[in-house]
Amino acid sequence: MPRRPAIAISASGAFLVLAADQASKAWATAALPREHDVMVIPGWLWFRLISNSGATLGLLGGHNRLLIAISLAVVAAVAVIVVYGIAPGALGAAALGAIGGGAISNLADRVRLGAVVDFIRVRGWPTDFNIADAGIRIGVVAFVVALLLEWRHRRRPGTAAGSVR
Known about the structure:
Blueprint: H1 3-31, E1 38-41, E2 45-52, H2 64-83, H3 89-113, E3 116-122, H4 131-155
Antiparallel strand pairs: 1-2, 2-3
Helix pairs in contact: 1-3, 2-3, 3-4
């Protein structure tokens, strides 16, 4: 995909995830009682305001500096892939934007608050999460799908990328 459209798509996706996550966290912090379940959809969805000093599933709890370094590395890797124009199509660029926006938003929490604000709890999901976490997870799945579609396209006989070299 050409660089300019990839950058525009990725930056737009990153901004949307970042803005939605920070706005929802501001609302949750102002409106929800700390560590108390508020039922939204009975038996399926609750809001519960917590601070998470670890990564997903509480891994690396209390290692904020390490998680800040990992977040910075993820954001840098996303930027390099997008800026060098090697994102696998529009889907890949959008997926990288979601990953980058989620990483930046959680990074902002870690730097500002020393932990990430989580407030969404869904039945069957093992941990509380936020919109940035959802953006990262959905972005990773979409990026893998984009890579598989790109790989499939390149393997097709008769396509320029799939022809014998």
